[in-house]
């Protein structure tokens, strides 16, 4: 996968050399470049923002540097997917992470201040598929941290990035449920025992227990997720639980 990131703070992205994302880059699974938006300014102050039309607090990112940056970074061939983090965007869910992981080329545009002049996104929509994405119902200083989050959610879904792809099948959100509790050795720690069933070797009962724990945890913590589950994702034994 090819990824381009445009930001006024390229230094925010140094963690992308670390851990499994760093490894994905080193092995060529992820071809990533970070671009400084100010490269495409032409005044001595390298200005990227100005006051909002219509009044109001804060500053808005000017269209000219963004237009030139996207002209340089968006390919002329098959349209890339332009992802712009904003609290006004579509919520980031595992389904969207899967969708983005299937793209050959993602371009991330990091807004700051009150956001990017709307004409930039309207103009880019002629050459790219534009998706505005929100991490949640709160406001960050800018899109940089959101891009780190989105990119981590996407990269771990790329084939070959995770050592054991089975972990993707069992984790929280894989089947519209939260994952239940997990345990490792020792079997007793501070007088707390690992549930006997997990040590029974009975794989059928263990699978059922895990499913029940996932249902209970989801019901307690995220009743909205349980209510949104398609009827065919529940079986008869789930309903009994
Ligand atoms: N930029 C500022 N706040 C944000 C949020 N909640 N999600 C994505 N990008 C943002």
Automatic annotation (TrEMBL):
It is an enzyme of class 2 (transferase). Keywords: Cytoplasm, Methyltransferase, S-adenosyl-L-methionine, Transferase, tRNA processing. It is found in: Cytoplasm. S-adenosyl-L-methionine binds at residues 111, 135-140. The keyword Cytoplasm applies. Homodimer. NCBIfam families: PRK00026.1 (NF000648), trmD (TIGR00088). This is tRNA (guanine-N(1)-)-methyltransferase. It comes from Polymorphospora lycopeni. The lineage of its organism: Bacteria, Bacillati, Actinomycetota, Actinomycetes, Micromonosporales.
């Amino acid at each position: 996968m090819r990824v381009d990131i445009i930001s006024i703070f390229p230094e925010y992205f140094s963690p992308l050399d670390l851990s499994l994302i760093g490894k994905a880059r080193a092995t060529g699974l992820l071809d990533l470049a970070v671009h400084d938006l100010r490269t495409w300014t032409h005044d001595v102050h390298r200005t990227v923002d100005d006051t909002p039309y219509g009044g109001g607090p804060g500053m808005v990112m000017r269209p000219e540097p963004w237009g030139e940056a996207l002209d340089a970074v968006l390919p002329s061939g098959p349209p890339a997917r332009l992802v712009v983090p904003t609290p006004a965007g579509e919520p980031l869910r595992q389904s969207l992470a899967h969708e983005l992981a299937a793209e050959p080329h993602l371009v991330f545009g990091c807004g700051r201040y009150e956001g990017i002049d709307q004409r930039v996104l309207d103009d880019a929509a002629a050459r790219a598929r534009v998706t505005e994405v929100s991490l949640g119902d709160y406001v960050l200083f800018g899109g940089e941290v959101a891009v780190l989050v989105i990119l981590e959610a996407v990269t771990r879904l790329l084939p070959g990035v995770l050592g054991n792809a089975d972990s993707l099948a069992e984790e929280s959100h894989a089947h519209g449920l939260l994952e239940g509790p997990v345990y490792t050795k020792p079997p007793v720690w501070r007088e707390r025992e690992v549930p006997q069933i997990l040590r029974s070797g009975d794989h059928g009962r263990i699978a059922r227990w895990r499913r029940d724990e996932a249902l209970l945890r989801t019901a307690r913590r995220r009743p909205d997720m349980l209510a949104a589950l398609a009827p065919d994702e529940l079986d008869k034994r789930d309903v009994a639980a």
